[in-house]
Amino acid sequence: MTGRVVAAALAAGIAVAALHGAASHARAASAVVRPNVVVLMTDDQTVESLRLMPHVKRLLADKGVTFDNSFVSYSLCCPSRSTYLTGQYAHNHRVWGNAAPSGGYYKLDSTNTLSVWLQRAGYETIHLGKYLNGYGTRNPTEIPPGWSQWYGSVDPSTYRYFDYTLNENGGLVTYDDSLPANYQTDVYAQKAVDLIDDLATGPRPFFLSLAFVAPHSGAPADPGDPVGQPTPSPAPRHRDAFANEPLPMPPSFNEADVSDKPAAIRKLPLLRPGKIRAIRENYQQRLESLLAVDEGVGQIVDELSAVGKLESTYVIFTSDNGFFHGEHRVPAGKILLYEPSVRVPLIIRGPTIPHGQHRSEFVANVDLAPTIVDVTSAQPERVMDGQSLIPFARDRLLHSGRDILLETPSYAAVRAPNWLYAEHVTGERELYNLARDRDELDNLQRNRGYGPIKANLAMRLARVRACAGHTCRRGAELWLRSRADQRPRTQSCRTARVRVVIGSASPWRIGDAAFYLDGHLLERDHRLPFAVLVPKRLVKPGGSLFEAVVTLRDSRHQTLIHRIVGCRL
């Protein structure tokens, strides 16, 4: 008997039934008590800075899952936050900047966003803090569609840590600098605590989106601020807390030879000692500004626990983009495609999430909305480009095999586990082997020896830069084939074995495969035909989960899944 098991319609490489099963588990868990969702978003935070946030570690990372390869597709405030609200890449939601005419708050269709879908699904939806750049410049009392309660910061006051204005459900309230308690991060945290206390007794589940401005630069200027280098304003109690903290200097810091980089980088001068001191001061103040955020996270999680809502709440901690501190001679900022800019923190804890674990699956901010839609059973009215992260959080072996798109008006790039390939509108190209060059020092695009991988990445980039919906999630074309191992007809089901083979339209692109049954390694195979014999005696009476984790020669990982029940695969 022979058979062929098709995984994820031969596209994404993950069995649809398995993914739906994991999602159904999340929904079943919420059938009795629909889960709440709290999103905590910082502004311009690097992954490196998480090491100095003990409450985030203890209450979120140690109680949830950390995604170690989390990216933003467009490393800039408004496009990134529009992706969070839509689950779409910028080429689909069409917000291409922070200001009109190509971007800003008024560019996004706010009638069709995550908050609208959740409100229609019966959720109390609350926004607190920064929203989209330019919000409030036309009508400061406007409340965007979909929000049941609104406490949005009004531009241009958003980036002031004191003397900022909030639109509080249609009324404007200004928090001046007369009281230390008016420090913006502290006000946001206290409002979140008060809201949770009120929502705990309400009849509906809630979605709370809290957007801190820290560690973004902002007013007021503090004594000792470096000249010509914008910095945040840490809470008065935290000033100089990291005055002795050294500035990280990876190999890319003040990169000596940028002759292989695009012209925009080549024209940057080497950083002189005075500028390096300013970068260090900015770095220290950014860390100091995050201490109030960390305290706020502790207060919010403690309040969820105090009102009995913590175990029924998903908490997502992330940032809208990363930030440069002198890497590749860039003294400050983001937007560029290099790691400090596009890599961001992402931690999820919640009712169906394991504790204290890490995941290597490549994920992006396009996945935030699909994840929230998954756990709340809301119905999106956009075709989302991302995928729910709940199955990946629950299963350490799960990998999608998809590429991550990085895009701005000036470049498009594809990010794979070991490779970064970019095409600029200037005609310039970049290619980095991140397995050997994690700091992106050696641009290989002119090296003929890398021609085949460059051509392959260019083909994949052409597809993903125009993708929509499921085509953005597509991995390699792989499938599973099975047949009964030949044994005497008198053998019993429990003594039988099934031979499972990985099928591919391009089998030479498979590097190796690891086969698992219920999470336990059966065998590794490093050569064609990439097969394993599954003893049926190992199959649980109620069925077992079979997973083949495939490593492609282009460095992607992709999981094929099927359920083995009885004597059939």
What is the residue-averaged pLDDT? 92
Which term fits the overall shape? Answer: globular
Report the sheet with the most strands, covering strand number, pairing sense and barrel closure. 10 strands, mixed
Oligomeric description of these chains: single chain
Task: Describe the protein in words.
This protein has 569 residues and is an alpha+beta fold. It is built from twelve helices and 22 strands. A ten-stranded mixed sheet has the order 7-6-5-4-8-2-9-10-3-11, with helices on both faces. A four-stranded antiparallel sheet has the order 1-16-17-20, with no helix packed on it. α6 (184-199) runs parallel beside α8 (273-306). The longest helix has 34 residues, at 273-306.
Characteristics:
569 residues, alpha+beta, ten-stranded mixed sheet, four-stranded antiparallel sheet, 12 helices, globular, disordered N terminus
Give the arrangement of secondary structure elements.
Layout: E1 2-5, H1 16-29, E2 36-42, H2 54-61, E3 65-71, H3 77-86, H4 90-93, H5 114-120, E4 124-129, E5 149-153, E6 164-168, E7 171-175, H6 184-199, E8 206-211, H7 263-266, H8 273-306, E9 313-319, H9 339-342, E10 346-349, E11 357-364, H10 368-376, H11 390-394, E12 404-408, E13 411-416, E14 419-424, E15 429-433, H12 451-464, E16 478-484, E17 497-504, E18 510-517, E19 520-525, E20 531-535, E21 544-552, E22 557-564
Parallel strand pairs: 2-8, 2-9, 3-11, 4-5, 4-8
Antiparallel strand pairs: 1-16, 3-10, 5-6, 6-7, 9-10, 12-13, 13-14, 14-15, 16-17, 17-20, 18-19, 18-21, 21-22
Helix pairs in contact: 2-8, 6-8
